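re: that chain from earlier
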Amino acid sequence: MRSSKTTDTRPAQSFVRRRALCVGSLLLTGGLALTGCATDVASTSAATSSSAASDSSSSTTADSTTNAETISSTTTEDTISSTAAAAEAFLATLSDEQREPVLYDFDDETKTTSWSNFPVTFVQRAGLNLPELTDEQKTAALEVLQALLSDEAYDTVSGIMGGDEYLHENSSTTEQSLGQYCIAFFGDPSDTSAFEVQFSGHHLGINATLDGATDAITFAPSHLGVQPAVYTDAFAFFDSLTVEQQATLTSGDVNMCAPGDTCDFTTGDGLTGADLTDEQKQLLLDLIANWSGMADEQTTADSRAKIKATLDDTVIAWSGETTYDMSTGGGISFSISGPDVYVAFQAQQGSAGADVEGVSTTGWGHVHTIYRDPTNDHANSVTQQAASGMGAPAGAPADGAAPGSTPSN
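^ sequence. v structure.
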């Protein structure tokens, strides 16, 4: 279904609205945890704000919405219905030639190898790239995300996209794929059967499976990352712990399961959910909701209940700084690994060549995260496959650079 074509790196008009430049304002409750598209692509070069809102207390300063006013759904059924309708509306804007690389069979294993934390030029993404679309088509594509995501999650995704565009225009990076985002559907969009929305770029890989037959949505597996970033609330959970609990947490085994990796989801040692007070468990569930709770209230509640049921058997491990101070040290890494949830967060040690004078883009300022469900990746429609030999830890220092190459962000 897909064909290989030469990447076109000509500048394209930004599909994220501009506003006054606001650097380093990305606030993440848990922090955020990279392949050419199937068709010709053009990189986006536009300065925009790097800001996002998280699931709970974080706020946004980004203005990255499309022209349509969207009210978030409150039920799973509403989200599935509105997302299917938005997907059909987007497909209606495409020519027959454009529709072909966007639509895949629901059980096509391409969905398992076309999401990554590597640059778009390293691992091929499925679907059409937004910069090569008309303004009408770009708007329609983003309206699929607006229908799928809560307002907060859409702001987070917009901030990630804005951060990539900011780096493309303002940093020393040589990575030309920043600003490229591909959209594809696995299965026909419908409110009565299952389909998956895949939206993927350098620091973003959303795989959302929506099933109208079972009234269920899962975002596993997905990759959320950002650079530059500022985050503080990851320490809300850490700071709630006693000295003894913190010692157990930091002596544990932080594990990283990369996109495109099959993973055995070993938990290792660390602090378990059973070691926590009820209040601490709620803080941990709030943290996990940054990844599992990206849709409507019902879907978020259902996901939270599932994870909570096995929280006592979930292991949390932490490495790195124990006090939030971006002026020192090299950031943090943590993993949350249990029967029904896997989250890996890493503030990377290097900027991967994306340096901006006066802005922190390294260590604390360069974040990668992975979210997976050991029991339900891709809603069990396919088995996760290794991605073309390009697998790497979620926070590989070179940010996906090929062996022997110069990091390109």
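Confidence is low (pLDDT under 50) at residues 1-37, 39-70, 389-409.
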